[in-house]
Specification:
The protein is an alpha+beta fold. 20% of the residues lie in helices and 33% in strands.
Amino acid sequence: ATCYYESRDYPNALEWYKKVYDESPGAYPEAQFQYALCLKLNGRYDEAKKEFESFRKDNKIRGSEGSVMKRRAKNEAAGCELAKLIMEEPIDMDIMPMGAKINAPYTEFGAWVLNDDEFLYSSLRTDSVVVMGPNKKTSMRSKIYKSRRSGGVWGEGQEYDETLNGINGHVGNPAISPDGKTMYFTVCNPSSENVAEMICEIYTAQMGAGGWEKARKASDLNESGYTSTHPTFADHDRREVIYFASDRPGGRGGMDIWFSTVTNGRISRPRNAGPKLNTSADEVTPFYNAKEEMLYFSSNGQVNIGGLDVFKADGRERSWKTPLNVGFPVNSNVDDFGYVTGEDGEKGFLISNREGAIALKNAYCCDDVFRLEYIFPPEFAIIGQVYVKGETEESEPLADAFVMLGNSETRRMDSTISALDVPYEFYLGEMQDNFELNATKAGYTADRATVSTRGLTESDTLYVDLYLEPIDTTRSITIKDIYYELDKAELRPESKKGLDSLYAILMQYPTIQIEISSHTDSRGSGSYNVDLSQRRAESVVRYLKDVKGVSSDRLVAKGYGETKLLNECADGVSCSEEQHQINRRTEFRILGQMPGTVVTYDKATIDAMRALERERGSLDNRIKELMEQGQLDEIDEEVGSGEIDRDATEDAGAAPVEIETDEPEEKAVEEPMESAEPSAAGLSNSVEKKGNFFFGRAMINGVAEVEYMYDARRPVAFVSGELYQQLRDAGTISQHSNAKAVTLPDGSKSEGDIFTINTLQLGEYVFNNVEAKLNPRMSQAIVVGQKLLDKKKCKYNLKKMELDCK
């Protein structure tokens, strides 16, 4: 039974553990636990949970061993519940084995993404069993391979680098720094005491002109006689940190996650990542996703659904929130580890022995590389500026214009008011539809534009500018075909067609207020004509209010009688009937925008599109509850927390030996983070509040110190023309994501109007690779929004009037 289990032949192990327990339960009481574990590893969760609960209740194992196994049984039973939960709500993603060009029948591991079309992996490429023993030696060694994709097809792996692969031992687990200049990897060799046991050490190499230079041991990361493996890079506020796995003394048991910081090329003493991540079992293959600011790792000690599961944890170094199981299908009923992605976090690789791997001896025997790709519905936003339409392209921004967004089903989805300094913005979420934008302002002609997200497969920000032309606000517009009976004020039926055109204008511009004016010719007394024209104007208002449902406070009736004749046909002047007809008219003119008018924003459509995201967050909360309820009670006195300062014992002048003991789980996340390195520009976090905006000091790309403005509504950063010129002239703008040239204040043209700010420092906090939109007429140097601040969990402390980021 044990041989089958250790070789990961779980169906046969299941059969034989059951035979052992059935025939001799008293002699081998632990066989029930192993039987339950094999049920779980075969995906039979309900049966497994029942056996784990029976083991905890009825098994007669005594002493510390029994206590440990019963706590493990509680943990494993919680994992069975977790399996059912996450399998009912799987992640929307594709996971596929890489196939025979990559995977061999023995084992693949240690994948690393180079770019969208290249990745590294490690492989022991043999088609036969490698036999190890005191008198057995093999020339088979694992090496690092590279595969390249062409036309959507991944090619056969080729040996990556002779300098690296030429080192004596099993070479693998490469990790390359973001700048491509440094690699960490592992070399494993049999232990001198036990040839079947591997001891791994971390090596490092530098990229030279001709490729990777000769590697050397990263001595500061290794511990003699113990394994150090699975290195990965992280950048915490421009502070380089190396995470890795090791079974060295001072851990919590098995393999633990450890970390070291790198300062000016010097690697600090490794420290244990603490009790939130590490358990008395194994934690391996850490990977830090910089975009998400999340550490991924695998564990068989956290609440899992089978073997090693992939987990994600928010935090850094020794301060972490409760790790969350990443979910199904990333995790399966067997081992899943070596999770890595590219920069966007949407595509990557996974190592697993799940069904679908190329098997050497049994279905679960061997680890293979699997390709993973999250299926994220694309999200969209519309951003633009309202301009005064001019004869040249140098149009001026227009403030206080009413901008309305509608789609094919809802005429009024959302609305906003334009500003001089920052563009308008509408968040569309995942909506794929045709959209219409309308801009209006009293005294200007309206403008309309259409844009569509239908058929778009990637998230995008759509930029749409609107142009309003000044009009003569004193000019009245005649409503054609308005008829009355002679000397009467009631509308004739045929007049309603003309009034329907006026109604259409009122619906198109829902916040304008208009004056309905009626005029007569000069025949009859002046007072009579004023009264008649007033009654006629009121009949128009009545029709629009009572029949069409237009709010009465948007309509003003005014009768002018014969006071505004359009020709010389005054009293006593002989005119034809046609000349008198010109003066008998009904007109309207825009008085302005209704004060305090707000167009109702129908959130139902967009909220529905956000439902998937909310549901996913709800699932994470339920996963967290299960993990915290089922977590092993880490109370073994003989298991340390993690950390003994061995260097102190070697230095006679050093402080006493430092021993850190475990704190309760609730307090672990409250440990303070180590302070970030001093800010590059020494900027203050102090801010000033003006209305709804905050103002502080910023440094952009290390060359421009300016005042920034915070506006919570803005999804990206907006940069003025003057600041763009300064950054360009300093040679710090190199990446534009479009080619829309914009005229700058000095008369030159930009390469595009969307670009990347390499480093944006707000106070002492540094943000990397920030998307920015050029607004050449904006007076404020730079405007940022909450979406940027969320990356570092930033907020404004109103008591201290400071920017505060985690």
